[in-house]
Amino acid sequence: MTAEPAFLLHRRPYRETSALVDLLTLNHGRIRAVAQGGQRPGSKSRQRLQPFTPLFVTWRGERELKRLMLMESRGHTALLAGEGLLCGLYANEIATRLLPLEFAAPEVFAFYSALLEALPAPAERALALRRYEWALLETLGATPRFCTQDGGALDPQIRYRFDAESRSFIPAEQGIEGRTLRYIDQGDWQPVGLASALKAVMRAALAPHLGSTALRSRELMLDLARRRQR
């Protein structure tokens, strides 16, 4: 097969010296494969299979579990630290959880690539992360419908909360103003005042698909926030 652009999403030990990896690929979405020698100290595959490193990969196998044949770097690893690193880990974690195996998701790959470029810059990372989350929701056919449950327009003066079952919005005293939701629906997410509302909408829309198990990356983010407050 032709070498495929990819990123490592997750790696864990497999048997004695191999690694079981989840990769985000350009044309095949998420694949799971065995990387022989991926846990052996000093091996080339272990050195190359690092998070946030652009790769070229090939694999063999017709079943869900593939065997990696080629792993080559195609660029520099994104140098992430602090909050930027935790956002990157979050991006990897939700893709691993949400994307079905071998389900083509080229837009997710594109927004993931753009996210890695934005994460080192604090002013850019939140918006890039929201666009990446939206791409995941779109791939799953789970993007919010910015209307009421019966399909009506949102009232700018009323507050709403997201309803996961209908993927629409219902009135709620502690919700988000309809005016703000309509701005979000227009796709212009640049205004600073939209940031918290946009994050809340994405979190509510993603929650039903992530399941009940807490995200490890989110726990680490909360721990970082607590330490900063001390």
TrEMBL record:
Tree of life domain: Bacteria
Annotated Gene3D superfamilies: Nucleic acid-binding proteins, Recombination protein O, C-terminal domain
Short name of one Pfam family: RecO_C
DNA replication/recombination mediator RecO N-terminal domain segment(s): 3-69
Keywords: DNA damage, DNA recombination, DNA repair
Key word Ion transport present: no
Cited NCBIfam families: reco (TIGR00613)
Role played: Involved in DNA repair and RecF pathway recombination.
Matching HAMAP family: RecO
Family: Belongs to the RecO family.
Protein's name in the database: DNA repair protein RecO
Taxonomic path: Bacteria, Pseudomonadati, Pseudomonadota, Gammaproteobacteria, Oceanospirillales
